[in-house]
Amino acid sequence: MQVTSLTKREREVAAYVAEGLTNRDIAERLVISDRTVESHVEHIRNKLGVRSRAQVATWTVTVGEVTAAPLSRGSENRVVTCLFADIVPSAAMSTRLGAERTKTMIDRALQDLSAIATAEGAVVEKSTGGSYFAMFGAPVTHADDPTRALRTAEGATRWAAEHPDTAVRIGIETGEVLVDLDAIATTGDGMAFGSCINLAGRLRNGARPGEVLVGPVCREATSATAEFVARGEREVDGIGTISIAALVRAETGLVARPSFVGRRRELDLLRGALERAASREAVFVLLIAPPGQGKTRTAEEFIASIDGDTHVLRARCRPGAELGAQTPSHQLLSCDIGPLTVEAIQARVAEMIADAGERADTVAALAHSAGVVIDPRLMSLSPTERLEALSGAWRR
Predict the structure, then answer these.
(1) Cα–Cα distance, 136 to 149 (Å, whole number)
(2) Is residue 359 a contact partner of residue 353, using CB atoms and an 8 Å limit?
């Protein structure tokens, strides 16, 4: 399937689908009706030979390289948190593998580390030589963007600890930058300009392998939730003298929170559902309430009460304007397995299912539903049969 077989309008719609926009969002962007968007999406599915929006997004990102021609969004000033990181291969690995294979290993590392950043809502700009830049706060701003950057850095250092031939060094700072929203929506190159980007890069250059250096603004923004160790003051050309700290923990859990009062009935219902699940009965629980009524806090309190006794997998459904192609099912598997490949899914399923035929069916369904591969056999089923096969695999 070639991109040219899609019309110009279909390429625009496919790119917006890959961004995670709903049909209504796409209709508003392109100033067309919801029904017209629905028709375009159906034509795209038929031409690509896929049946879900997630598969359209996966094909767009990994194969099609579809580029939309969106309306110009321009530039605007935003407060963002910038993360610069270097992948540092060990001298022994470079000598053992040689230049070409070392580059392949670094490229794979960039993919893994970029996935950690995008899972926290960042947009990532990769560069040559094993470096990458992640920005938190544009195009979608979150109140905890500095904490998200610290969690990303912590995840990167954990990844490096699991790959002893590779280390990372990271610099992070928060500040106001000029954000090019058009660049974010297209190539991702040159997507922001500002002094905090320069400072984050300088901090990265001054960090030791395995170290995360944090600038004063980001440190102050996360002082109630993170733990740091002071690294003194340094003179930075063009910026002046700044106070630098090294990250110890992204979240200490010591921040003061109001006492959790009430919701006893809801917590009892959640515990009852967990008991049913422990007897190998799949249970779906949905917390519904108006905004600000404590849904997230109730879920957090329930998870905290079972921490250590239960294996918890986390995923989030992205808001329509937030970039990223990872579906919740992809996130759930990644949370359990790590970077997703068919081989990784096979190894995990082999731990739980002994029957070879059932194991093969489960692997195929999980990989298909997570967008890792498109399974021809599943695509040949009717929508009802396919849904039954996918649901059965997840229940196992």
Answers:
(1) 7
(2) yes
Is 133 a domain residue?
A: yes
Integer distance in angstroms from the first to the last C-alpha of the chain?
A: 34
Same domain, 209 and 178: yes
Q: DSSP string spanning 102-128?
A: HHHHHHHHHHHHHHHHHHTT-EEEEET
Q: Are residues 103 and 199 in the same domain?
A: yes
Q: Please tell me the predicted confidence (pLDDT) of residue 94.
A: 66
Residues 106 and 48 in one domain: no
The reply to whether 279 and 316 lie within a common domain is: no
Q: Which residues pair with 242 in a beta bridge?
A: 234
Where does the chain have alpha helices with state H? 8-18, 23-30, 34-48, 53-59, 91-119, 145-161, 181-185, 195-206, 216-221, 264-278, 295-306, 328-337, 342-350, 356-369, 376-379, 383-395
The single residue listed with the structure tokens 């093969």 is 360
Low-confidence ranges of the chain (pLDDT < 50): 1-4, 65-72, 321-324
> Do 223 and 119 fall into the same domain?
yes
For 319, the domain range is 312-396
pLDDT of residue 81: 94
Per-residue pLDDT reduced to its tens digit, 342-361 = 888 888 888 888 888 888 88
Question: What is the 3 state secondary structure string of 322-360?
Answer: CCCCCCHHHHHHHHHHCCCCHHHHHHHHHCCCCCHHHHH
Global pTM?
0.52
Question: What are the structure tokens assigned to 211, written together?
Answer: 């170290």
Cα dihedral sign for 333, 336, 340, 342? Answer: negative
Phi, psi of 240 (to 5 degrees): 110, -165
Q: What angle do CA 121, 103, 168 make, to 5 degrees?
A: 50
- Do 113 and 41 reside in the same domain of the chain? no
| Same-domain status, 10 and 83 | no
Instruction: Indicate the number of domains in the chain.
Output: 4
Residue 130 maps to a domain: yes
For residues 373 and 341, give the distance between their C-alpha atoms in angstroms, rounded to a whole number: 9
Beta strands 240-249; 212-214: pairing state: antiparallel
Q: Look up the CATH number of the domain holding residue 178.
A: 3.30.70.1230
Tokens of 173: 């700072």
